[in-house]
Amino acid sequence: MTPTEIFRRTAMGRGLADIRQVTITDGPGASGRLIEVRTPSGLCADIALDRGGDLLRLSYKGAEIGWHSNTRAPCPWPDSEAEHGLGFLRGFDGFMVTCGLDHHGVPTETPADDFLYPLRENNVHPLHGRIAAQKAEVLEKQIDWDNGVICIKLRIQQASVFGENLELLRTYRFSLSAAEITIADHVTNRGFRPVRHGILYHFNAGYPFLNAQSSLTGDCWPLRDQLDASGAEPSEDHVEVVQACAAPQDGHIGLTNGAGCTLSIQFDPDTLPVTALWQAFQSGTFALGLEPQTDLNDKRQSHLVAGAQRDYYLTVSVSGP
Question: Is 78 left (phi over 0), alpha (psi -120 to 50) or beta?
């Protein structure tokens, strides 16, 4: 139906789709801002504006797809520099967590010569960087019935005096005709010195979507058989397993729940040439992470001169009964 025909039946189309900005008033996330999105296909998402503009929640037809941790998405995110760089784990939660913008992976230090600041000999990088803890500025949010999308545009900044000044412009487009989200990220070095750059998209599936019948998908993905032998079951003594490999040539990875519902992630393997699989099946955590990412060992890709820009495009879709 045309937008006019839809509006004849439901005011502003709200019986089919809606977006609203809310503020949490209780619990660890109190004061945190969310944009709640609901689409005609049954896809629902919470965008956490005070957590890097990431997707805190994703559900499909009332069933949760994403992971919920015991941290309960605190606001603000606890100090990521604490606990020898492991403070990230005090706030880690949600379906999609962006890691970067100048580091992803284990805590480390890198030379700070480019910043020309005598008191900073090394850059100290906590686990998975700092962007996920930054606050987003909302540039646009609208339901565009004529073009069949819900569009949300955000600006997120990671900056330090005598350090990096990196800007992330993020655009979400939620389809009004399918259970599909496109994410377009535009990263710019807004400083006047060269900086290190890296980004990792931590897509986390949790129960009930993640279960003993779940299996990985991706015809060209070397890691797709990792659940075939033992499946996904919680265990008190499970120790996390992280495996990494080159991204598949078609840029497609995913997970099915064994009941015909599939989560698919499509990306450009030229800009995100590495994938990792995070198996965290310890009881009380029970998560599986699919992680397209840049290669920090590639000096060309992990370096941004003043004013330089990088673009990343991903499509997240859910299909099934």
Answer: beta
Question: Minimal CA–CA distance to 290: which of 311, 312, 270, 264?
Answer: 264
Q: In what order do the strands lie in the sheet with 54-60?
A: 18-23, 33-38, 43-48, 54-60, 63-64
Boundaries of domain holding 200: 3-319
Q: What is the tens place of the pLDDT at every residue in 130-185?
A: 999 999 999 999 999 999 999 999 999 999 999 999 999 999 999 999 999 999 99
CA-based angle 106:111:112, to the nearest 5?
115
* Mean pLDDT in residue range 104-115: 97
Q: Which long-range contacts (CB under 8 A, 24 or more apart) does 224-229 make?
A: 224/253, 226/277, 226/279
CATH code of 161's domain: 2.70.98.10
- The number of domains in the chain is 1
Burial of 127 (0-12, 13-18, 19+ CB in 10 A): buried
State CA 282 to chain mean position distance: 22
Is the pTM for the entire model greater than 0.85?
yes
Q: Which of 11, 279, 296, 12 is nearest to 150 (CA)?
A: 12
- pLDDT confidence of 230, banded at 50, 70, 90? confident
